[in-house]
Amino acid sequence: MSKRALKKHLLDLDNAALQEQIMELYDRIPAVKTYYDFVFNPKEDKLVDEAKVKISNEYFPTRRKRARKRRSVAQKYIKHFKTLGMNPLLLVDVMLFNIEIAQIYAQGNTPQPDTFYKSMLNSFKELVQYATYHHLLEEVGDRIERIVSLTEDERWPNATLFDEAADPE
Fold first, then answer.
1. What's the CA gap between 76 and 121, in Å, rounded?
2. Sign of the torsion angle spanned by Cα atoms 79, 63, 102, 156
């Protein structure tokens, strides 16, 4: 169904029928429930804190011995937060935290496989692109600079690429 056809259909419905359809969507589709829960009661700080705990658990586990180091865990949260329309500054904070916690892990556990460095670079590029788009580079510039300098200090194989990615121009 096209957007135009949907709009026409919704205009033909009376208020009670429209409310019933929305309630049915809310009951049947978890994504709709999540969206409405977020819209009417955002609690963004709580969501950010939960995400940070899960991300740090990937590198410093509390229930198992070995770190999993899955970038996908952070990416799922980032994608979910973008879908919800979270405050961009809070989302950038999660993106920065993901890279910073990985760097802390890498400091005590070197060397890492090349895929680790490559995935962190991809996360960093995404972060810089998102922060640039939302005009947040000034607010988070210090943290970005710290990430770049730490890659150089720790002699990451792709440290020069981090430096290049930090300058979006």
1. 17
2. negative
Burial class (CB in 10 A: 0-12, 13-18, 19+), 39: exposed
The pLDDT value recorded for residue 89 is 95
Map tokens 């460095």 to a residue: 117
The 8-class DSSP code of residue 69 comes to -
Long-range CB contacts (within 8 A, 24+) of 132-138? 132/168, 134/88, 134/89, 134/92, 136/88, 136/89, 136/92, 137/168
Q: What's the pTM?
A: 0.82
At residue 76, the pLDDT reads: 94
Residue stretches of the chain with pLDDT short of 50? none
Over the stretch 118-142, which tens digit does the pLDDT of each residue have? 999 999 999 999 999 999 999 999 9
Q: Where would I find the H helices in 41-136?
A: 44-59, 71-84, 88-108, 114-133
Q: What is the pLDDT at residue 123?
A: 95
Alpha-carbon distance values, 38 to 34, 47, 80, 103 (Å): 6, 10, 11, 31
Spatial separation of the C-alpha atoms in residues 67 and 2, rounded to whole Å: 46
Number of residues that this document lists for the chain: 169
Alpha-carbon distance of 160 to 99, in angstroms, equals 16
